[in-house]
Amino acid sequence: MSSPPEFFTGYGEVPPALSRFLVKVIVGLLASSFVLALMLGLGVQDRGDGRYSGEIRATGVLFNLPYPVLRLLPTAADPQGHTMLVAGGGKIGAGDIADKAKGRVVELRGFGLKRGTLDMIVVDEESQVQPAAAPLPLFGAPVLIGRYLIAGEICDGKCYPGGMRPGTGLAHKACANLCIIGRQPAIFAAQSPIEGQSFLLLANKDGALPPPVLYDHTALPVEIEGEVMRAGDLLIFHADWSTLRKQ
Amino acid sequence: MSAGYVPVIWFRTKLIYDAVLIAWVGIYILTFVRLVPMLQPAGVDVDDAIRRMHAFGTCAFLMLSFVLCIGPLARLDKRWLPLLYNRRHFGVITCAVALAHAWHVLGWYFAYSNIDPYVALLASNTSYFQLAGFPFEIFGLLALAIMCLLAATSHDFWLAFLKPALWKGLHMLIYAAYGLIVAHIAFGALQTGKYPALAILTAFSVSAVTGLHLAAAWTTHKDVLETSTNAAPAEWIAAGPVNAITDNRGRVVRLPDGQNAAIFRHDDKLYALDNACAHQAGPLGEGCVIDGVLTCPWHGYQYRLADGCAPPPFTEKLSTYRLKLQDGVIFIDPRANAPGTPVEPVRIKGVDA
Ligand code: HEM
Ligand code: HEM
Ligand code: FES
Q1: Contact B45 A51 (CB under 8 A)
Q2: Which is nearest to B25 in space by CA: A38, A37, A39?
Q3: How many CA atoms lie within 13 A of B216 on its CB side?
Q4: Do the Cβ atoms of B225 and B251 come closer than 8 Å?
Q5: What gap in Å lies between CA A194 and CA A152, rounded to an integer?
Q6: Residue of chain B minimizing CA distance to A6
Q7: A86: nearest Cα among A120, A57, A109, A125
Q8: Quick one: fold of B237-347?
């Protein structure tokens, strides 16, 4: 065949000069695959230091504030009592489970999630909530600490402590919304700590569930004014949504 | 084409092409999800699902960028033509990799809730009227829809069914898909500001794709002879000197009605045919005459110069044009003959070429 140099038909013989070129291209491409995967793979960041801490049990009283929380029985070391957030399995909140045992002393069994001072127990079945034989302690209603203007990010309380990393950031916005729609606790990750805490459980001005307007502001830097309440060692932000501003 | 041995080598070429493609994807994904975790310090903890969605997402983006570069690369340097040869397999494999990315995203960010993942994809973020927080997944979804549409209509059956003009128009949607993916990345993963490697890759991809297309457009523009548009359609149109065409090669002429014709020189004779190959509208003017038959640079379809017909058993036909030669200048009659009409070639006698 009188194929001129460097002309490729797909069925004719490949001219030697062209075939040398093509071998170089193929080797180059395969090497680039390796180098690019290394570059982009190593560039993936570990976003967040939240972790699962394995199976745990905790005994206390369940409250909806407005999301389920477990106030642990006070101990000598911790007379004020520690407060844990309670989440359900997947992206479905534990509200239903908690409603039935509200105000009684119970033992919860589930998986622990922890990031900084955020302490959470994941309870995905009713059978994991068992009545416990202990005297009912006198937990008061949450107390007002003060009115604050806080800058930070609205996140879902399950991914932020490590349920599903990254847990913060825009790439994760739809996922965070999905958790909050499913009634997993919404939290506010503050840019600078309030009373030593860098996250607060989120509620409406009147302490009820936050309004749907929140979905447009999750995962973005915002500032909101509102009252900060304390229940044990947990801070709750009764945010006034009309004051919300983009940062 | 000697039909006897054609299929064997044809398949061999496609097999090599596909094997290289699949090896490329395999090396990329395995390095990303298996090797990289071993190289990272012990404290770095990235969920496997996230690694996989990043691996398939960036892989599909790299492939889409490269497949868009092949066209202009082949225009600028003919040695790249073999990569263009099986571009549709490239496209289909890219589409499969992109599907794997979307699959992992749906199985992670949009799973584990009591809302169906496909509903969640559209309903969980509805901030369509704000720039920050815009549901960037939609860009990915639209791009994926385009890629699937192209993949589903990829067979030559669809090309024949839809007619080349419509099919080609459909195919140009791939540029829209690319733009959508750049937006998908810019409004999504890049917003965290914590993935500089991805930012660099995206900038590089956009400049390579646009730069190469501009360079190729410029080269093509230089090589195409624009004919005067004020000529009445029936008149002969000057189409450059005969010595601008080398033996066994062609020259593209843009006719007043916007059609491109290609004039070829072979054995000291001149012929003119439609520039668009009947297969996938490949640029015949960039092809060459092999064993007396015009051969398309894209997939090697062949046409007889004298009548624009593919040699038997093939049945493709191209329009032909009449030519004449005056004082070393070629003239073309811009009215195309019906496909397959034989035309007497113009002899170059005593012309200094
Ligand atoms: C239904 C379709 C799609 C959905 C739902 C989707 C969703 C996503 C999501 C949620 C991310 C952010 C991941 C993160 O940062 O953690 C992402 C990133 C990305 N996507 Fe898509 N995507 C889709 C289609 C595509 C297509 C078709 C391509 C390319 C051809 C693509 C390429 C990328 C790239 C390169 C990234 C950045 C790297 C990464 O973060 O994984 N995506 N996509
Ligand atoms: C599936 C069936 C497909 C067929 C038959 C096909 C065929 C073609 C043809 C003939 C062209 C040249 C268009 C022209 O300039 O006239 C082309 C261009 C191109 N195709 Fe496809 N393609 C297919 C699918 C895909 C897919 C799924 C992708 C990407 C995901 C893709 C990416 C491209 C790109 C990037 C170009 C370059 C456009 C240019 O350089 O002008 N193709 N394809
Ligand atoms: S376009 Fe495929 S052979 Fe011409």
Answers
A1: yes
A2: A37
A3: 18
A4: yes
A5: 11
A6: B79
A7: A120
A8: Rieske Iron-sulfur Protein (2.102.10)
Sorted by sequence, the CB contacts under 8 Å of residue B294 that are 6+ apart come out as B250, B264, B273, B284, B287, B288, B302, B303, B304, B305
**pLDDT tens-digit map of B124-167:** 888 888 888 889 999 999 999 999 998 888 777 777 777 767 77
Ligand 1 midpoint to CA B135 (Å): 11
Q: Rounded distance, CA A97 to CA A88, Å?
A: 8
Q: Is the pTM of this model over 0.90?
A: no
ipTM of the complex: 0.84
Own/partner contacts of B222-227, CB < 8 Å, gap of 24 or more, are: B223/B251, B223/B252, B224/B252, B224/B253, B224/B254, B224/B260, B225/B251, B225/B252, B225/B253, B225/B254, B226/B254, B227/B253, B227/B254, B227/B255, B227/B256, B227/B332, B227/B334
Q: How far is CA A60 from CA A26, A73, A82, B29, B315, in A?
A: 65, 5, 9, 47, 84
**Distance of alpha carbon B22 from alpha carbon B108, whole angstroms:** 26
Q: Which two tokens stand for residue B296?
A: 């398309």
pLDDT tens profile B246-283: 888 888 888 877 788 899 988 888 898 998 888 888 88
Domains of chain A: 51-131 (2.40.50), 143-246 (no CATH)
Q: How far apart are CA A30 and CA A161, in angstroms?
A: 40
CA distance A60 to B155: 65
Give alpha helix (H) positions in A8-142. Answer: 16-42, 95-101
Residue of A nearest to B298 (CA): A9
What angle do the packed helices B48-76 and A16-42 form, to 10 degrees? 150
The number of the ligand nearest the C-alpha atom of B296 reads: 3
Q: Where are the beta strands (DSSP E) in B248-345?
A: 250-254, 260-266, 269-274, 288-290, 293-295, 302-304, 320-321, 323-326, 329-332
Which DSSP helix (H) or strand (E) runs through A221? strand A221-231
| Cα B159 to averaged position of ligand 3 atoms, centre (Å) | 12
In angstroms, what separates the C-alpha of B230 from chain A's closest C-alpha?
37
| Residue reference for tokens 């809302």 | B115
Collapsing DSSP to helix, strand or coil, A87 comes out as strand
Q: In chain B, where are the structural domains located? A: 12-222, 237-347
Kindly report the nearest CA distance between residue B38 and chain A, in angstroms.
Answer: 10
Q: Do A68 and A95 touch, CB atoms closer than 8 A?
A: yes
What are the residue ranges of helices labelled H in B77-195? 81-85, 87-106, 117-123, 137-152, 156-162, 164-171, 173-187
CA–CA distance, B193 with A123 (Å, rounded to integer): 34
